[in-house]
Amino acid sequence: MPKRKQNKAIDWAGVERDYRAGVMGVREIARWYGISDTAVHKKAKAEGWERKPKPESPFVQAKTQRTVQAEILPPPSIKPEALSDRARGIAGRMLDELESVTSHLGEFEELICNEEGDPRRRQALLRAISLAERASTLKNLATAMKTLNEAAAPPGGKKDELQRRAEEVASRFGRRPQIAVDNTK
Q1: Nearest to residue 149, comparing CAs of 84, 90, 86?
Q2: Which of 32, 42, 46, 100 has the fewest CB atoms found within 10 Å of its own CB?
């Protein structure tokens, strides 16, 4: 937990506003204002602050209000080759988007810094276009492309060839050869 300086004034009005809003957790509020969560709890109890219940997300609200049952349809039969081709197309478009963000990075950073007033949101947006995030995205796309290419590869690799040869040799003997091991010695 960060230590706060003794001469720094605490914005208790801001703490109270965020506490009453109920959007942020007490630890997040404390970290934001540079105080301990215990101090926030004590101040809230002493002054009788009431927290609003956390708002439900629109998805949860819509889910609880829905009463109509939807019919579940089986997925259409899709050939694996067609599915991997579609996935390669999506991965290609995502690579194009990553290239666009990378080539216009300075413009995006300037736009975020000039237009976004909320410092938390500004930091989140800058983190989203950071080098670490772009590198992670590229790594994930490369892994996905590798997996798609392996899944779409036709059978007949080295293992299949070795298996075919072993069966060919075994057919000459009329039965599969067995290895006999004498463990009694």
Answers
A1: 84
A2: 46
Domain range spanning residue 127? 80-152
The number of folded domains in the chain is 2
> CB under 8 Å to 85, separation ≥6 — which residues?
152
User: Is 114 a domain residue?
Assistant: yes
Residue 172 above 80 pLDDT? no
| Residue whose pair of structure tokens reads 């002054």 in the numeric block | 47
93 within a domain of the structure (yes/no): yes
Residue 129 is given by DSSP the state: T
Q: How far apart are the first and last CA of the chain?
A: 67
Tell me, yes or no, whether 143 and 87 share the same domain.
Answer: yes
pTM: 0.40
* Local structure of 109: helix, strand or coil: helix
What is the token pair recorded at 25? 């957790």
Residue 71 lies in a domain: no
Whether residues 22 and 85 share a domain: the answer is: no
Q: What is the largest CA-CA distance in the chain?
A: 92
For 97-153, what is each residue's pLDDT tens digit?
888 888 888 898 898 888 888 888 889 888 888 888 889 888 988 888 888 777 766
